[in-house]
Specification:
The protein is an alpha+beta fold. Helix content is 69%, strand content 13%. It has 2 helices and 2 strands; from the N terminus they run αββα. The chain has a two-stranded antiparallel ribbon with strand order 1-2.
């Protein structure tokens, strides 16, 4: 990125100010990036744990697979999913809280014996699937924020800060050269005046 500047003290002060802002922000951005990286890792581990629990439930259902045709249609439905919002390193993420089910009234005497336990198993599976979706959304949000933060850290570290430092150095050298030239000119002029006065 080419920084536009002029060879004067005003431009020098402006660039020094911009550089200071970036140098001060960089450690915060780096800390945010690390925190987000850690949280993404935690959220992915959470997804793996939920998948393992779902797999365990699937194995539990497998031997009774043929019985599930007896399960009444529309016996259970989801009425509400409760979520919270948690800020992680300044990023709002969804947190699964609870899910509410509505279960149709049924006569236990008219239903197969396993329906109540099957109902609880079904609730558990639905709860885990919803929780997994929420955690996957959290992973997406955190991953996006982490990528954006990494891009900004790289922009500051590798592009903007070196460019500002280089521009400041150029202006300082120019101003020093200009000052040296002025001093030399004054000295030469002073010597000429002194020589003229001596010969007069």
């Amino acid at each position: 990125m080419a920084i536009k500047f002029q060879y004067n003290k005003t431009s020098l002060q402006q660039l020094q100010k911009e550089l200071k802002v970036r140098l001060n922000a960089l450690p915060t951005l780096q800390a945010k990036e690390s925190a987000l990286r850690l949280e993404v890792k935690k959220a992915k581990a959470e997804v793996t744990e939920i998948e393992e629990r779902l797999e365990k439930n699937a194995k539990q259902i497998a031997p009774t697979h043929r019985l599930w045709v007896e399960f009444p249609d529309r016996l259970i439905s989801i009425t509400d999913v409760s979520l919270d919002i948690k800020k992680i390193a300044g990023v709002k993420t969804p947190i699964f809280n609870d899910v509410k089910f509505e279960v149709e009234r049924l006569s236990l005497f008219l239903q197969p014996w396993w329906i109540p336990s099957g109902l609880e198993l079904l609730k558990d599976i639905a709860r885990l699937k919803i929780e997994k979706e929420v955690v996957l959304k959290k992973v997406d949000i955190l991953e996006y924020a982490r990528k954006k933060t990494t891009q900004k850290v790289n922009l500051y570290e590798k592009v903007q800060i070196p460019s500002y430092e280089e521009a400041i150095l150029k202006i300082k050298r120019f101003l020093e050269d200009e000052e040296n030239l002025a001093k030399s000119s004054q000295k030469i002029l002073k010597n000429k005046i002194a020589a003229t006065e001596a010969t007069a």
